[in-house]
Design a protein that fits this description.
Blueprint: H1 2-19, E1 26-29, E2 40-41, E3 50-56, E4 68-74, E5 78-87, E6 98-103, E7 122-126, E8 137-140, E9 145-148, E10 152-157, E11 161-168, E12 175-181, H2 189-203, H3 220-223
Parallel strand pairs: 1-3, 2-4
Antiparallel strand pairs: 3-12, 4-11, 5-9, 5-10, 5-12, 6-7, 6-11, 8-9
Helix pairs in contact: 1-2
């Protein structure tokens, strides 16, 4: 049995190494909470396509007051793409995290936010759908699972500075999600190693905090190829 598992992992890892450069996103995991004090920092470029597999966790009362924070810097006019997707897992039918981008030159907040933004910064808030609306899904081949589409920010930013991305659920539901940052397929050696290390875990659902095996009933022909 153990030999069989190692064989499967070897095949998946080899497949990942050979095909990594054709995959759109460099995969990262949220090993520690991405908080305001310790945000996920985009080290290279916000235009490079990253997929950060993260989690809005429960508090002691069983609700999720978790707010994940990501930060990036631009020094010249840059295309900024942000998206939040949720795996199609049992129990996530009403998990609808929101997305917000705070930075210089953005509009002033129209309502109080559950987090503080830097002085002088504006914010764009992109809401998710509602529980009574149908949710569009797609199949992501390399992750081997289906996802609910979610809020998207796709604009050209011209003002230099630090920008902050916030992801949270106003209904305080917890759950797994993927933060997609950037659209360009840029692969450095360290990115290939990152994919080599994390893709087998994603294929085995090790990034999830729930059992998603019962929810993956759709097949490739019905859902079609991934759009990311």
């Amino acid at each position: 049995m153990l030999k069989h598992i190692f064989k499967i992992l070897f095949i998946i890892s080899t497949f990942t190494l050979v095909t990594a450069q054709s995959w759109a996103h460099v995969p990262y995991f949220e090993h520690n909470d991405f908080s305001a004090k310790q945000p996920f920092t985009v080290e290279y470029s916000i235009e490079q396509s990253l997929a950060i597999y993260a989690w809005l966790e429960n508090n002691d009362l069983g609700n999720s007051g978790d707010i994940d924070v990501f930060v990036f810097r631009i020094n010249e006019p840059t295309s900024v793409y942000l998206e939040v997707i949720v795996p199609v897992c049992k129990g996530y039918e009403e998990f609808l995290p929101w997305l917000a981008l705070a930075g210089p030159g953005l509009p002033e907040p129209k309502a109080p936010m559950p987090f503080d933004i830097p002085p002088g910064y504006g914010i764009e808030v992109i809401q998710n759908g509602t529980i009574d609306e149908p949710r569009e899904t797609f199949y992501e081949f390399f992750g081997g699972k289906s996802y609910y589409k979610g809020p998207v920010f796709d604009e050209y930013i011209t003002i230099p500075g630090n920008y902050y991305v916030y992801i949270w659920d106003p209904q305080q539901k917890s759950g797994d999600y993927v933060a997609v940052l950037g659209k360009k397929e840029i692969w450095r050696f360290r990115d290939i190693i990152q994919a080599f290390r994390n893709t087998p875990l994603i294929r085995l659902d090790k990034e999830l905090h729930v059992d998603c095996s019962e929810s993956l009933s759709e097949d490739w022909d019905e859902l079609g190829p991934a759009t990311h």
